[in-house]
Every structure is written in structure tokens, then in C-alpha cells.
Amino acid sequence: MKHNNKLLKDNKPTHSTLHTEPYFNGYPIQDKYQPLIVNNLLVHEKVLMKALSHHKRTSAFRFELKFPRNKQYIVNHAISKFFDSLRVRIKSDIANKNKRLDKKYECKLSYVWVCEYSTSINWHFHVVIFLNRDVYNCFGRLKANEGNMYSRIRAAWASAIGVSFDAALGLVHLPDNDVYDVNTNADNYEQQLEDILYRLSYFAKVQTKPYGQGGDNRFFGYSSL
């Protein structure tokens, strides 16, 4: 994917309402990145509520996916392949856990992603996935070859962009505070909602989104509602 410096400089999404207040729907948001895209903020809340309707105890995993330099990809294709691969890997792991532990675990994958460009790390995705906390609640060791959530994400991304598992190690980045727990029965449930929605509001910033380039690429996506 090639970038257009002018489009990135004059970046404004078409047909989108922008938000410039410190709160949205009663929740605090990261106003230092304003303006924020209202549709994205609404989607964050809807996807989170949908995830909680599947699993009352949900873990939100926050990570970044990077493209190798000097290669071009169609954003839609890469991220779609990633989620298809990750969904299969989670389904297989759930089946193995149920058989080995004589359990009846279920795990519905919900997610939100945005694609951005920065001169320091090129094209990259910011991603959050929502999973059943009773099954998955941490990434695990980053250098593990299998058996934890980080290795599944790494393998799924490697498959999506056609690189080896080893090569994908530097292409999956975990930021600080990479896992959030939300429990609908917790005494601090409202605070948990505030924390994750505040973090997700970063996904709604206009800056660094290459709107206007069109073609086969889009720069914001989410699981079915």
C-alpha cells in the first residue's frame, strides 16, 4: 500500500460526524487526539456490549499488527485473512480444551480494528479482540511457539501476510496495559467499562488515518453486531 503525504496532511473522513468534547455518551475519552469520529466511538460501545452479551466475563486484548517494510498489501484482504485464521485457531483450541478437561467452554470472537500510517512504523493495525475471560485472560509468553494467545495471534498474522512464524515475531506488538477485564457482575463494572472505552477512543482519531485514498482499502472494521 502506498501513502499520499497530502492526503495524510489534509486528513478528514468524508460523511462522518466529528466529536470534540471530553466525554461521549457519558464516558471519558482521549480528547488530546480530537477530533474523534463519532461512528467509531459508537461502534466501540456496540461491539463491547455485544461481546458482553456472549460472555458476562470478557477479556479485551489490545495489540498492534505491523506489515513488513517494502511490501504492499491490500488492507481488507490482510485483516480478513487474519481474523479468519485466528477464529479457526481459537475454535481448535476450545475443542482441545473441552476434550482434555471435560469442559463445555465456548468463545465468541468479537473485535475492532483500525489501520494507520506513521513514518516511524509504516502501515499498521491497532486491534482489540474480546474473548471469554473464563478461557482466555492473558497473552502468555511472547517467545512461545504455541499454546497461548500471543502465539495464536502471531501465527494468524504470519498466515495472513505470507511470512514465517519466526518472521512475524517483530510484527505483533503489545502495548502497555494490553489486557482489560470486564465483568458485568463486578462491583466496579461501570469503571471497567470506562477504562476500556477510554482506551478504545484512540481508535477513533482522525489523525494518521489515510482517508480519501479509496481503492480496495478501508481503514476501520469490526465484528458483526
TrEMBL record:
Pfam family, one: YagK_YfjJ_C
Domain YagK/YfjJ C-terminal: start-end pairs: 52-223
Superkingdom assignment: Bacteria
Protein name in UniProt: YagK/YfjJ C-terminal domain-containing protein
Organism expressing this protein natively: Colwellia psychrerythraea (strain 34H / ATCC BAA-681)
